[in-house]
Write a structure and sequence with these properties.
The structure is a homodimer of 400-residue chains. With 400 residues, chain A is an alpha/beta fold. Chain A has eleven helices and 23 strands. In chain A, the strands form seven sheets. A five-stranded parallel sheet of chain A has the order 6-13-7-8-9, with helices on one face.
Chain lengths: 400, 400
């Protein structure tokens, strides 16, 4: 949706990846505009707005719903959340006569949307209760560096004081954050999402301690023949010492979970490996990638966190067009393992975060990472890749 | 050098990565224009054109020399090889009055140079004895597809008949390949390189069966306190069932070997893991990446080769600017392991080959690869990455 709102994808409708004909071709009966009202696990039936459907096995993929902060004024006109196609369309048409656009929340969606508004020549203001942006993804120094870049790009931040009230009569006139009144005639709530579990809960399916549907590695819920996948489930994190679950809320996790649930639901056998929440995004011409845990979460998860910040060049110095690339690498002194990485730069961030994610999924020590062979050609990557140099730097720090 | 000849790097001299001052700063005594004439291992001395140098430990990094084919005419003026800065300068000045440029050899250097000549508006002709280009890197189908692209880009190929003679009097007038006379007023010999081992051999250092200096994983030669690194050594390949060595001849391998040799030579401890020859290049706007073995070499090395060719999109279909990406994946039926991958496309090839190389260095089955988490954002990578889809396709083929 942010890409459609920025105008990069021509029409919001283009975001529908699979046309109905594909389902027909695949012999899948698709029932649109059919609301599921109740799951009856004992009768193996679902009740819907268009009648009953029996099942042998059932997959719940109810996704998530935006979190609406409990502050006065969220019900006003021109206060939006971002989830479905319709939200995107409403926001686009609302932009036509908007002047002051405020985003509440500096997570991934909040920032992607702020950049989309900027692309459309607004000077969006972002309000975040934490004192830094992308707090659950990035370490403090990386977060600060990204913020500086976005400020230069024309985005205005109000950090450290959560939004307390949306002001105005019927229409929005401003947002109160701390003691400050921030002018607004349109507000986007980007305060995260929470799993949509109401059907599962009513059916007596067990939830996890984060409020998502509890599943095993085969994506089975606590009830026979009922599977679940996507934003509505809790997934096992690949790094936390004990079996700590995490709400991944990433499209890449959802599709992998869906595939595992689908295979098992029809009698096949597949398991989901623990996830690392590999994340990549582009904000105002900068690629930001992250995988594993940031330092803060690493500490909370009981790791002996040791981290470095490496600033290098995307290319060998003789080659024109080299760009700065910044890598944060986080290791665990006890095991010697790499537990997290964050990369930021104008180019070639995605490939590096993908490569680090791949080896982290196999489990890798910082020492092993520093010794790995990389792919060198002057126009793309230096002889000693920044990954190698960052890993060496972290290795030295860890052995001190 | 190809980048300098194409004009992408402004001056050939710019290719010198480390200035002399850096060596002084690091307390390294650098002796340029000093030819080593002999190594005296018993006396722990080297004799040079500028006198004797004693050593406690010695690292041989004598590199490689271009292979000159044994055909008549290679001694003529305007027949070049490509190795040092001087070669680059000679070729550039020779281009000023050249018209018909012929490259002998369709390996990486030959093709990179042909593309460089094309950038300078020549219509280079490439002669190759094998019936395909990049024969040691790519499978036949990938090779053919790349050739078609280069032909469209204006490069002319003469495949299947090796060059038999370089024609002309003092100056080059043509090259005889099979029965065909190919007009030429300048010829580049790009027939590969061979390890420069003359000093090592004279000193009594053991060579491997491929003619390179034999070293162990600490880069030690057969003689005490003598190490070797780079193009002059044989490296252990990470995939061949037994300890089969390989001549890597890649800059990325050389720097890693140099680092291991250096650490051990001063009393530290480092080992080189077996290499996979991860390769990336750019030819006429296409990125080509490869890692591990191609099907042919896989068969020769005793693997039960099973391969697929996957053609996908670099981005999700709704996103503008998606490009074709072709992946060849090669597995071993016996072990289920991935033993090779080749990728070709306009963009985002490097990151994928790096990621595959990273997990192959840890050892990975095709099934594991298909299940790995990838990094998704619509503008960079689809929800199901082409790597995932290719691995799934190979997995199905292998289980048939």
């Amino acid at each position: 949706l942010p890409f459609a709102i920025a105008g990069k994808v021509p029409r919001v409708k283009d975001l529908i990846v699979y046309p109905h004909s594909l389902y027909r071709m695949s012999d899948i009966e698709l029932h649109l505009e059919t609301t599921v009202e109740k799951i009856l696990p004992k009768k193996k039936k679902v009740l819907t707005s268009k009648g009953e459907f029996g099942y042998d096995s059932l997959i719940i993929a109810s996704g998530s719903v935006p979190i609406i902060p409990s502050i006065p004024g969220v019900e006003k006109d021109r206060v939006y959340t971002l989830k479905g196609i319709e939200d995107g369309e409403k926001i686009i048409s609302s932009l036509e006569d908007a002047k002051d656009v405020v985003v509440i929340g500096a997570g991934l969606i909040g920032l992607e949307m702020a950049c989309a508004f900027r692309k459309r020549s607004f000077r969006p203001k972002v309000i975040e209760g934490e004192n830094r942006i992308l707090p659950s993804l990035l370490d403090e120094d990386m977060s600060k560096e990204l913020k500086n870049h976005l400020v230069q790009g024309g985005i205005i931040f109000h950090l450290g004081s959560p939004a307390k009230e949306i002001l105005g009569n019927k229409n929005v006139e401003g947002v109160l954050a701390g003691d400050e009144e921030i002018r607004a005639d349109m507000v986007l709530l980007a305060c995260g999402v929470k799993p949509d579990v109401h059907l599962a809960e009513e059916a007596g399916i067990e939830l996890g301690n984060l409020g998502g549907i509890k599943v095993n590695e085969r994506m089975q819920t606590s009830l026979d023949e009922i599977y679940a996948a996507g934003d509505c489930v809790e997934s096992l994190h690949g790094l936390t010492a004990e079996s700590i679950s995490s709400m991944s809320m990433l499209g890449s996790t959802a599709v992998r979970e869906g595939r595992v649930a689908g295979i098992n639901a029809v009698g096949g056998s597949a398991t989901l490996s623990p996830i690392l929440n590999t994340t990549i995004t582009e904000l105002a011409g900068i690629e930001i990638g992250a995988v594993g845990l940031n330092s803060e979460v690493g500490l909370q998860s009981g790791f002996e966190v040791c981290s470095i910040r490496f600033e290098g060049s995307s290319l060998d110095p003789f080659f024109p067009g080299s760009e700065k690339i910044v890598i944060k690498m986080i290791g665990d002194r006890r095991s010697g393992k790499l537990i997290g990485a964050q990369i930021m730069g104008k180019e070639r961030v995605w490939g590096r975060i993908l490569a680090i994610s791949f080896v982290m999924q196999k489990g890798i020590t910082v020492e092993e990472l520093a010794a790995l062979e990389t792919a060198y050609v002057p126009s793309i990557s230096p002889t000693f890749d920044p990954i190698t140099l960052a890993a060496e730097m972290l290795l030295r720090r860890m052995s001190q």
